[in-house]
Design goal:
The chain is of the alpha+beta class and 221 residues long. 39% of the residues lie in helices and 16% in strands. The chain is globular.
């Protein structure tokens, strides 16, 4: 059986005061994150995208398999192809598949089958989940806890982009098998999410909502 070699843990324990200050600073910064649907066409520096994806790749994963793949789409034609395919699914969703309860829940947000942001935003990051992978011996292996692992990586990706001054929209059309075809990914992967990203347009607005307070989302025992 193969085992990982051990190495010293690179961890710097902070003094209590500094730890509290850092946690408060992080909360203040991340609290300004909002889902944006109106984007400027201004391009994102490539290094920002590369750094954000590398940050996402530091996420924990089942058996350290790292079952994710990110496809960065900045090509205008490809982004438009994705929009056309996505809107076909959205029309079916809003007209036939969605329940009345679901549509009612979406009403305050004002979403519909028009996904113009897929064209207007300068970048789409398609996140794929690896259901299986080929190991170093050429054998096909199963991924463990892939949904949880890819969810953690996507959360880090969104946070890294936010800290770089980039706005995001998490988009999950259903089904989205079209991404596999358009982006040429293998059938061992499953489309997980599209992270639409860019700079907000000058006239961008977001719904006036409030987050649940700590007392509603956590217990301390």
């Amino acid at each position: 059986m193969n085992h990982y070699k051990s190495e010293p843990l690179k961890f710097h324990r902070l003094p209590k005061v500094e730890s509290i200050e850092n946690s408060r600073d992080f909360l203040n910064k991340v609290s300004t994150r909002r889902t944006v649907r109106e984007f400027s066409s201004d391009p994102i520096p490539k290094e920002v995208l590369e750094n954000a994806i590398q940050a996402a790749g530091t996420a924990p994963s089942g058996a350290n398999i790292q079952p994710w793949h990110f496809v960065v789409v900045t090509d205008k034609e490809t982004r438009h192809r994705i929009r056309i395919a996505a809107e076909e699914q959205e029309e079916q969703f809003y007209e036939h598949r969605a329940s009345e309860e679901w549509l009612k829940a979406l009403e305050p947000i004002g979403t519909n089958a028009d996904k113009h942001f897929l064209d207007s935003a300068p970048c789409q990051i398609a996140v794929f989940l690896k259901k299986s992978f080929i190991d170093n011996n050429g054998e096909k292996k199963k991924s463990y806890y892939p949904n949880e692992s890819v969810g953690l990586a996507t959360g880090l990706l969104i946070t890294a982009l936010h800290f770089s001054g980039i706005a995001t929209l998490t988009y999950t059309p259903s089904p989205m098998h079209f991404l596999t075809d358009i982006l040429g990914r293998p059938d061992t992967e499953r489309p997980y999410m599209i992270v639409v990203c860019g700079y907000p347009s000058e006239n961008a607005t977001v719904p006036a909502i409030t987050k649940k307070p700590l007392s509603k989302i956590a217990d301390f025992r």
